[in-house]
UniProtKB/TrEMBL annotation:
Full protein name: Maleylacetate reductase
Limits of the Alcohol dehydrogenase iron-type/glycerol dehydrogenase GldA domain: 12-154
Taxonomic classification: Bacteria, Pseudomonadati, Pseudomonadota, Gammaproteobacteria, Moraxellales
Enzymatic class: oxidoreductase
Pfam families: ADH_Fe_C, Fe-ADH
Originating gene: tfdF
């Protein structure tokens, strides 16, 4: 059983436990915040209004305008709102889109962030930010965008539909997978990555079977927290480059793109770092690095995740375009980028066929 905890490691405070979001007002008071902008997506506006009601006079306004991939024009309007309201804190209630918009505000203004994640995205534990302009998503790192406080409340994820939970959890797993073969990997982060992969691969099937299983939700939240630490501690590689292209250029849904593509990027790297990939296979219940793509593909099948990129919006010319853009401005990867091989794998992903 995963225990509740309060983890303090400067410059971030982490609170973890069922119902922990109910303590948000006292936590904000302890931090000295008095003019808070509550940020959500349009779909989560009601949750934002409920949080604002709980926080009372600490709230300046609810701002329900976060969208996927943080377009620069959306970010600019949010920065203008934050400055106009003279806020002293952004409270991001939601997933990667919401936390991403809060980060865009923090990047320009230095206004601190309190994050209350409702998905398993993991961005809340990192200095990484992303902005999309002219159909290209660019990422960077800046200590200003690291939230000052993160409040994990597994109960908030009980309303997250099973299909979104599964995709979001696989998105988190992708951070841990790439941490295993990162350029700057280290034994501590690798240990956390293995634990994250085990936790998520065990919890997600239980959530799909019973979305109200609070212990499975707690285990998945714990795995996502660990995966977020991995994402924030070491560099990512080819998988994240592929997904940033799928999202920024083709506006594919972030979590689903990560979930589908992970099997193929892991298969591409299966022989690049055999020790790391053997760890990955074993964390997923297999034995050999040769299995990693198949193991992830089969897990996606078990989770009822859409298997084909065409089913989430990738056009027919997408595989060749993604392979080209990826190879023109590559991230680090433990093996060289081969455009023809990547295009062939992406064509399999486009059709939803197993990696081979």
């Amino acid at each position: 059983m995963i225990q509740d905890f309060h983890y303090r490691a400067l410059p971030i405070d982490v609170y973890f436990g069922n119902g922990e979001s109910k303590n948000a007002k006292s936590i904000l008071n302890e931090q000295g915040f008095s003019s808070v902008l509550v940020i959500t997506t349009p779909e989560q506006k009601d949750s934002g209004l409920e949080m604002a009601k709980h926080l009372g006079d600490l709230v300046s306004e609810v701002y329900p305008h976060a969208v996927m991939h943080v377009p620069v024009e959306v970010a600019d309007k949010a920065v203008e709102k934050a400055l106009d309201k003279n806020i002293d804190c952004c409270l991001a209630l939601g997933g990667g889109s919401t936390i991403g918009l809060a980060k865009a505000i923090a990047l320009k203004t230095g206004i601190p962030i309190v994050a209350i994640p409702t998905t398993y995205a993991g961005s809340e534990m990192t200095t990484v930010y992303g902005l999309t302009e002219n159909k290209l998503k660019k990422t960077g790192k800046d200590i200003k965008v690291l939230p000052k406080v993160v409040i994990y409340d597994p109960e908030l994820s009980l309303t997250l539909p099973a299909d979104i939970s599964a995709s979001s959890g696989m998105n988190a797993m992708a951070h841990a997978v790439e941490a295993l073969y990162a350029q700057d990997k280290n034994p501590i982060i690798s240990m956390m990555a293995v634990e994250a992969i085990k936790s998520l691969s065990q919890a997600l099937p239980k959530i799909v079977k019973d979305p109200q299983d609070i212990e499975a939700r707690k285990q998945a939240t714990y795995g996502a927290w660990l995966a977020g630490i991995c994402l924030g501690s070491v560099g990512m590689a080819i998988h994240h480059k592929l997904c940033h292209t799928l999202g920024g250029t083709f506006n594919l849904p972030h979590a689903q793109a990560h979930a589908i593509t992970l099997a193929y990027s892991a298969h591409y790297n299966r022989n690049a770092d055999i020790e790391a990939m053997d760890k990955l296979a074993q964390a997923l219940g297999g034995q050999s690095h040769e299995e990693v793509g198949q193991l992830i593909y089969k897990l996606n099948q078990q989770l009822n995740i859409p298997l084909a990129l065409k089913d989430i919006g990738l056009p027919e010319n997408g595989p060749s375009e993604v392979a080209r853009i990826t190879c023109e401005s590559p991230y680090y990867n433990p093996r060289p980028y081969n455009q023809d091989e990547l295009e062939a794998l992406l064509k399999l992903a486009y059709e939803g066929l197993a990696p081979n």
